[in-house]
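We were asked to recover a plausible sequence for a given structure. The inputs and outputs are reproduced exactly as logged, with field labels preserved.

PROBLEM: sequence recovery
POSITIONS: 195
GIVEN STRUCTURE:
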């Protein structure tokens, strides 16, 4: 109950305080390239229930056939998109998902259905909690797109190396979660962004 109250208050407060900044970002996206302001993607949430995750659009339209981003210079990413991704500003619309109860501020990052289908029964433990905006895996794999860019087979590298490591961290979070842990992850995330 405390976690949900924190999610509602913090997400609502951030949306109100940053509304002018978010409005500027929205205009910049529209001016930079054709397409809408938001990108919506189906993700898997708590108990395996799917939902539409919101992000600011950082790619050109019809660029999501490959569901992983390869390198900061992925040609599908727009000019403003590079900036938004670098500072994680593209993630702010997920505060709407938090208000709707589909996500939490902290929790295992939600995955697309095609990868969730590969989870082992043990790995599915991460689906027992609401997915989050940030978690231990977000901190450890902040340079994920660069790791994939250096791979000869990015899809295989993600499925066989990165995803299992993320899920291990996600399971550790689920097993040891606490309000203090959430605060620690939030502060580590903020420090990583502004560093």
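RECOVERED SEQUENCE:
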């Amino acid at each position: 109950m405390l976690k949900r109250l924190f999610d509602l208050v913090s997400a609502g407060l951030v949306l109100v305080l940053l509304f002018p900044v978010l409005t500027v970002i929205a205009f910049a996206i529209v001016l930079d390239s054709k397409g809408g302001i938001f990108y919506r993607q189906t993700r898997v949430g708590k108990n395996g229930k799917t939902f539409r995750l919101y992000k600011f659009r950082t790619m050109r339209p019809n660029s999501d056939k490959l569901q992983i981003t390869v390198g900061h210079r992925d040609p599908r990413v727009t000019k403003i998109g590079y900036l938004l991704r670098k500072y994680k500003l593209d993630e702010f619309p997920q505060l709407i998902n938090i208000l709707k109860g589909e996500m939490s501020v902290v929790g295992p990052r939600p995955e697309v259905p095609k990868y969730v289908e590969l989870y082992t029964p043990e790995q599915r433990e991460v689906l027992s909690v609401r997915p989050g905006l940030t978690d231990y895996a977000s901190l450890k794999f902040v340079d994920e797109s660069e790791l994939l860019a250096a791979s000869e087979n990015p899809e295989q590298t993600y499925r066989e190396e990165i995803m299992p490591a993320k899920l291990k961290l996600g399971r550790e979070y689920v097993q040891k979660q606490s309000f203090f842990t959430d605060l620690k992850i939030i502060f580590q995330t903020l420090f990583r962004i502004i560093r």
